[in-house]
Structure to design on (950 residues):
């Protein structure tokens, strides 16, 4: 049985009885057993995956109505809650937190008969770009185990790339879906802010983050979005998408479309020569597909990483304040502690990156400094929004490589937080502006993947998929060597 | 000059659910920590869902206090660590970047003075901390989150009050108004709380917190003014600080905590999108608003020519005004109002008595009819009232049973007058010399008839007998 298949092909095969759901899930669990010791994509597995698969088989054989997912196996980033299972955020502070409710996205998946394989690794509280900040050890890149898988949804990307599931849900605050998608050669979508409910997603920077599908193909991404997108009464920030079918007309192509090549992201100092070359190829591909490409400049972009870290740290400082180890958490005898000393003792469990951002988050919005940092960051954000809206008046798409570099080795950048932060340079714009963006696997050079990023205007996911599908069809990538 | 400002918090207990989840707004009947859910406990991954009705209730309050109400409002996070705060931030509102809270400037008329309202905001109440043994030095501190997330309205005034008495009058007016609007029950314990700030001429502003009741607030303000005055007289600087009311010792105590230095790092709560409150919503809220106490009072004075003091008493009390509203007709309104303020109030002056009283509006109109048709005297009405409150029996039956029918038969009254003239010879002589003392004789007749004699006829007959 070939586990390196798409969701859509899988559904066809299950419908045509090429294999049963149980057979595929058994095989997938075996694959996890075989490779996850090396990859470490998963933090925990779903004990009832097999039972769930059998139930769906029963539905199929008895002619009962079956959800549109037909039991395909999907992994979930471990910052998304599922009733009765541990949701750790890869943090010691939530090591034993068992969620008493299920997130809207997982609810929708389960209602459509997807099988959850387990919860995947991430940088602690989704803060990082390599999964090296996971409190439970890093995830390895299936393309080369000495290399980082990207982050923070590194476990999700690796689980899909290593065929330990057919798809995964990650979350993207500044590139956390697209960056590991690029590093592991999978498709990663960050949708329009508000398109997917965040109910059950543990907040890091709630004003800009979104859950996003990570899949093997562009069509699978559209399929998954069909399942999980749309308004949710549990999340006031969700917007009505009028039940768009994102798969419909996905093969329509991009002839006559206008593409802006973002100058700041394609000429930046940190861009590697491999990535730069790949970008030039991608531009030629787009032109050969009938689109016209032109350079566009968004002058605020050089300030976005600073603004991004200012805003996200402010929100993180507030969102993570609840982890005081009073209502839930880990064993810590409270007797003899005064409230403040208990709290500082409790919160010492946070790892270095989270601690760094909480400290930053206490400083940049504080009374004496907000004007210089936080309020200025908000200005950068609104300036960027008006620039990008102006660009979308002229262009259908804006493109740039997803990450300025290819995956690097473990330990290479972890002690250099500023260099790490610059990895976000090409991805944070979509978060700060709320626009949708997708990373499409485009090249594998020296055995390491490169992804191309396409951005579209708000709620233009359908058009975004059309361009991503067109680009994907121009590629011919090797299989993962694992 | 003494300046006092207030910060009032009032729970919107008339709402069905909490501000951001479907737990009950009226948390009082639950066992500790039994009115909670992932949202009001701030569990990881939960998101607030704004209760739109709370926005409407708060907007109604803003409109009733003549506040500016913005087209759209936003919520902010106030960040601080405290065990009663599940998320370690409170979702509240802020007006530093322009009007974004449910209410901007407004005012309340207190006697002849206008007290300016600075702002009104909608926010969530925190949980409740219980110190074992009611002392902060205890080793055990318990937290009950049933209250966490209850919709709370904060009303901040300018320092426009000049005395604790004015504060009391204002708070009475305000709590009547909130109750009248049907959004709050200020009578419920802890449902309405007020903190104050005080400064005297030439001194710094001192905030007083931890005040349990309005009664204590008045005491705390008195104490604080006296304290500041005595410092001033001795040339000691009055420090700008926050002081806590020590309920046991009945004094204010400097709070050593650095509360005033706290940096709340306010920023927008992005989980709640901006809420639009368009003109049509505001118009609808205004339309559905019960008549305000002040306009009720105005109506009583203008339409029925009721004395302003009488109108004030009736309009500002729900019980009396309901009695009045259901009893009056165009030609007896004034009499009904007077009957309430001169007699009814004397018997039913507490909430408890109001609840126990069996009097209805029909009783009042029947009594006034009886007086006006000279079936009974005003005095007899008062006697009958007492009985009606207890039994609730029909007015006619009560009058009959108690034999309160008016004596207007001239010969009967004449007989009694003759008796009195026999008994009170000196008074008769006095009355002949000084006609103004005649009332003594009228009183005697009334005494003898238990107030049943027609007073007008009695006076007439006495006068004519005196000239015989």
């Amino acid at each position: 049985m070939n586990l390196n298949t798409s969701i859509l092909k899988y559904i066809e095969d299950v419908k045509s009885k090429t294999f049963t759901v149980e057979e595929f899930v058994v095989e997938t669990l075996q694959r996890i057993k075989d490779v996850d010791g090396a990859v470490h994509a998963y933090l925990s597995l779903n004990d009832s995956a097999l039972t769930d698969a059998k139930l769906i088989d029963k539905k199929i054989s008895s002619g009962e109505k079956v959800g549109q997912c037909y039991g395909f196996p999907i992994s979930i980033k471990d910052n998304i809650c599922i009733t009765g299972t541990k949701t750790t955020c890869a943090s010691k502070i939530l090591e034993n937190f068992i969620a008493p409710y299920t997130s809207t996205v997982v609810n929708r998946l389960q209602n459509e008969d997807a099988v959850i394989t387990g919860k995947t690794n991430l940088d602690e509280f989704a803060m990082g770009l390599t999964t090296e900040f996971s409190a439970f050890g890093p995830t390895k890149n299936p393309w080369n185990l000495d290399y980082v898988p990207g982050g923070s949804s590194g476990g999700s990307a690796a689980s899909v790339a290593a065929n330990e599931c057919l798809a995964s849900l990650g979350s993207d605050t500044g590139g956390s879906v697209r960056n590991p998608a690029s590093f592991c050669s999978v498709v990663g979508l960050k949708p329009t802010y508000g398109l997917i409910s965040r109910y059950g997603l543990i907040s890091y920077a709630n004003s800009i983050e979104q859950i996003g599908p990570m899949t093997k193909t562009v069509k699978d991404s559209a399929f998954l979005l069909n399942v999980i997108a749309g308004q949710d009464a549990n999340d006031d920030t969700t917007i009505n998408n009028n039940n768009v079918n994102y798969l419909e007309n996905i093969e329509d192509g991009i002839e006559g479309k206008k593409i802006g090549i973002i100058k700041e992201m394609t000429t930046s100092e940190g861009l590697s020569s491999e990535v730069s070359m790949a970008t030039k190829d991608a531009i030629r591909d787009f032109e050969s597909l009938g689109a016209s490409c032109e350079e566009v400049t968004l002058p605020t972009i050089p300030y976005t990483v600073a603004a991004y870290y200012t805003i996200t740290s402010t929100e993180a400082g507030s969102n993570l304040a609840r982890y005081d180890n009073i209502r839930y958490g880990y064993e810590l005898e409270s007797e003899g502690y005064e409230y403040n000393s208990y709290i500082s003792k409790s919160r010492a469990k946070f790892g270095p990156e989270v601690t760094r951002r909480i400290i930053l988050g206490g400083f940049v919005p504080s009374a004496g400094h907000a004007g210089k940092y936080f309020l200025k960051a908000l200005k950068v954000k609104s300036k960027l929004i008006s620039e990008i809206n102006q660009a979308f008046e002229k262009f259908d798409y804006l493109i740039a490589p997803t990450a300025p570099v290819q995956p690097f080795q473990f330990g290479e950048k972890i002690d250099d937080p500023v260099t790490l932060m610059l990895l976000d340079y090409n991805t944070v714009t979509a978060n700060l502006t709320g626009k949708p963006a997708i990373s499409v696997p485009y090249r594998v050079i020296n055995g390491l993947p490169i992804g191309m990023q396409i951005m579209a205007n708000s709620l233009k996911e359908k058009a975004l998929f059309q361009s991503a599908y067109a680009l994907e069809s121009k590629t011919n990538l090797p299989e993962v060597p694992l | 000059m003494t300046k006092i400002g207030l910060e009032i918090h009032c729970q919107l207990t008339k709402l069905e659910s909490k501000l951001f989840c479907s737990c009950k707004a009226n948390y009082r009947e639950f066992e500790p920590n039994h009115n909670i859910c992932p949202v009001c406990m701030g569990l990881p991954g939960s998101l607030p869902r704004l209760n739109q009705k709370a926005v409407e209730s708060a907007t109604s309050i803003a409109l009733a206090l003549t506040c500016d109400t913005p087209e759209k409002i936003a919520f902010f996070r106030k960040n601080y660590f405290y065990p009663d705060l599940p998320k370690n931030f409170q979702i509240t509102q802020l007006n530093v970047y322009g009007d974004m809270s449910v209410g901007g400037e407004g005012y309340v008329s207190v006697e002849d003075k206008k007290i300016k309202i600075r702002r009104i905001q909608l926010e969530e109440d925190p949980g409740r901390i219980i110190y074992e043994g009611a002392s902060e030095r205890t080793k055990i501190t318990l937290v009950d989150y049933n209250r966490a997330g209850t919709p709370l309205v904060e009303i901040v005034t300018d320092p426009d009050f000049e005395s604790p008495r004015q504060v009391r009058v204002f708070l009475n007016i305000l709590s009547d108004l909130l109750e009248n609007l049907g959004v709050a029950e200020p009578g419920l314990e802890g449902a309405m709380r007020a903190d104050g700030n005080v400064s005297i001429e030439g001194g710094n502003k001192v905030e007083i917190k931890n005040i349990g009741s309005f009664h204590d607030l008045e005491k705390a303000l008195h104490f604080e003014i006296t304290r500041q005055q005595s410092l001033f007289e001795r040339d000691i600087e009055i420090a700008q600080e926050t002081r806590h009311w020590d309920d046991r010792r009945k004094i204010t105590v400097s709070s050593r905590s650095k509360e005033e230095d706290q940096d709340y790092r306010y920023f927008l709560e992005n989980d709640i999108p901006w809420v639009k409150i368009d003109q049509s919503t505001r118009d609808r809220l205004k339309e559905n608003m019960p008549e305000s106490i002040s306009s009720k009072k105005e109506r009583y004075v203008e339409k029925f020519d009721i004395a302003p003091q009488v109108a004030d008493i009736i309009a500002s009390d729900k019980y009396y005004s309901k009695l009045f509203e259901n009893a009056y007709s165009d030609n007896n309104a004034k009499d009904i109002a007077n009957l309430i303020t001169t007699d009814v109030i004397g018997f039913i002056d507490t909430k408890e008595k109001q609840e126990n009283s069996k009097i209805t509006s029909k009783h009042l109109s029947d009594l006034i009819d009886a007086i006006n048709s000279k079936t009974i005297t005003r005095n007899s009405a008062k006697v009958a009232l007492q009985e009606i409150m207890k039994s609730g029996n029909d007015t006619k039956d009560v009058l009959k049973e108690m034999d309160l029918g008016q004596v207007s038969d001239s010969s009967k009254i004449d007989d009694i007058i003759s008796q009195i003239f026999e008994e009170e010879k000196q008074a008769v002589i006095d009355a002949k010399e000084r006609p103004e003392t005649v009332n003594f004789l009228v009183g005697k007749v009334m005494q003898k008839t238990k107030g049943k004699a027609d007073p007008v006829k009695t006076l007439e007959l006495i006068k004519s007998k005196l000239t015989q």
